[in-house]
Recover the amino acids of this structure.
């Protein structure tokens, strides 16, 4: 899958669900991309590097979200 | 006078053990005096607010910490654990109090210069409080603010040549016992493989794409000093294939009381003369030892490497010469389904650089399976339980082995596949009816 196509899919997929939730497991993203985890990881990493996505971690579990979205970003005065 | 009154915490100092409260007070004093003229980058009284919020938690019987967040260093999905307090007005010094995990050197060997350097860094850019080491094995830096994270990471990387450790759904910082550097029981070089895999799997350590955490731990022998069998998703425990080496003269010296058993470890009390029958032979779990004409004999084929006899008489009994490790999969602490110990997946494998066999035949196939089939927040041990040990054997290509049976009759079912059975599963119904009525 081309990177730009993958990016569009992720942005569209996550924006659609924005009202319900803002943080997603890696597997949710791989499912949106319809790719195996290893391939999906490369694409998703690039999106993090570009600042499209950002990591969220509870300490034990990691999740992904569109940069700047969700409660955490505001609640903790991080922006 | 202290910034916050802490009567409940003060009481903890009265016990017989070293107190973390006293340690914190020492750090409070040191930061207040600042004799070295450190340019503190986070509030100077951070430790006072830390004591204050802890006192409040004791009073309320509830935590005032929140954890998690988007804090981290750019490009890394682990190594920083966001911590915030829910009473920032009362305790502004710990409004942000993030933890940083720093990858510890294999075997935890340090120079004093290095220790001083990391302490200086943390004094200036953090609270000055550390955990050496956390239960993960990492160096834990306790408490800093968000703007300091990138600065600390830069200094760690450029000046101290050190990396952050793992947290979140990552490969966690691999951890090992002291190994062959100081221990004659180490059956392989734990530090070498620990370092090698840490370097090899950097991407897995820093960029989370696993369903949940994943831990490697390396124990040089079955004494399991880092408790890998109870904690690691993949634990590597040293073992040997040949015979325990016996020095009969030293056995006699132990029996005659010339050598103290257990290296003199229990010398604080008089336990009476050493009794080899009672203290070694009768305690052997497989009863594979006996005395014959004053000589110690071992039926090595029965030995399950419990290490007891070797621990008691280290000068007389030594590990064998044909050494390697056993690999266990799926240990975990109790969140779902209760705690699990590791299950044996590889009875014996040589541990030799560049460890290709371990990487390609064990680690990577297991990861591929778990990444595809694992549910969110499902540990490897839980997936093994859900899909079955047989599935793990299938994905790794290892053949079932009696040594993989945890206990007899634990699971009596053997699932044959159609292609393994002569004639398959289909039957000729007419032929069957000749013998069996409807």
């Amino acid at each position: 899958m081309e990177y730009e196509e993958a990016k569009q899919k992720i942005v569209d997929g996550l924006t659609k669900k924005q009202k319900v939730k803002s943080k997603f497991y890696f597997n949710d993203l791989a499912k949106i991309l319809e790719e195996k985890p290893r391939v999906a990881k490369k694409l998703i990493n690039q999106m993090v590097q570009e600042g499209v996505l950002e990591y969220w971690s509870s300490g034990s579990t990691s999740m992904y979200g569109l940069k700047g979205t969700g409660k955490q970003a505001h609640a903790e005065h991080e922006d | 006078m202290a910034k916050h009154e802490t009567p409940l915490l003060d009481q903890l100092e009265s016990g017989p053990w070293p107190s973390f409260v006293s340690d914190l007070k020492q750090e409070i004093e040191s930061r207040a005096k600042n004799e070295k003229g450190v340019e503190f980058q986070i509030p100077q009284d951070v430790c006072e607010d830390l004591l204050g919020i802890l006192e409040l938690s004791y009073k309320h019987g509830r935590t005032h910490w929140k954890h998690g967040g988007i804090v981290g260093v750019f490009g890394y999905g682990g190594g920083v654990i966001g911590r915030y307090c829910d009473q920032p007005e009362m305790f502004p010094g710990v409004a942000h109090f993030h933890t940083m995990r720093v990858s510890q050197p294999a075997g935890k060997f340090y120079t004093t210069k290095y220790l001083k350097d990391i302490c200086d860094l943390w004094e200036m850019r953090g609270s000055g409080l550390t955990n050496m080491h956390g239960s993960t094995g990492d160096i834990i830096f306790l408490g800093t603010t968000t703007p300091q994270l990138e600065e600390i990471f830069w200094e760690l990387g450029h000046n101290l040549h050190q990396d952050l450790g793992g947290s979140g759904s990552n490969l966690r910082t691999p951890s090992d016992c002291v190994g062959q550097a100081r221990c004659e029981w180490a059956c392989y070089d734990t530090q070498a493989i620990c370092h090698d895999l840490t370097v090899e799997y950097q991407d897995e350590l820093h960029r989370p794409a696993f369903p949940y955490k994943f831990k490697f731990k390396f124990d040089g022998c079955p004494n399991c000093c880092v408790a890998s069998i109870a904690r690691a998703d993949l634990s590597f425990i040293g073992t040997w294939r040949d015979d325990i080496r016996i020095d009969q003269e030293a056995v006699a010296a132990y029996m005659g009381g010339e050598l103290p058993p257990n290296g003199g470890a229990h010398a604080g009390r008089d336990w009476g003369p050493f009794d080899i029958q009672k203290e070694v032979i009768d305690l052997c779990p497989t009863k594979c030892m006996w005395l014959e004409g004053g000589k110690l004999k071992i039926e090595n084929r029965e030995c399950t490497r419990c290490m007891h006899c070797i621990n008691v008489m280290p000068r007389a009994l030594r590990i064998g010469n044909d050494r390697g490790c056993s690999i266990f999969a799926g240990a975990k602490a109790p969140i779902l389904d209760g705690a699990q110990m590791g299950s044996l997946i590889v009875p014996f494998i040589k541990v030799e650089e560049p460890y290709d066999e371990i990487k390609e035949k064990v680690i990577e196939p297991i990861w591929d399976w778990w990444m595809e089939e694992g549910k969110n927040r499902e540990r490897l041990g839980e997936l093994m339980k859900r899909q079955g040990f047989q599935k793990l054997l299938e994905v790794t290509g290892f053949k079932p082995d009696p040594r993989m049976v945890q206990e007899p009759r634990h699971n009596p079912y053997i699932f044959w596949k159609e292609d393994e059975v002569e004639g398959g599963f289909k039957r000729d119904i007419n032929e069957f009816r000749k013998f069996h009525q409807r």
Strands of chain A lie at 53-57, 62-66. DSSP finds four helices and two strands in chain A. Chain A has one domain: 3-66.
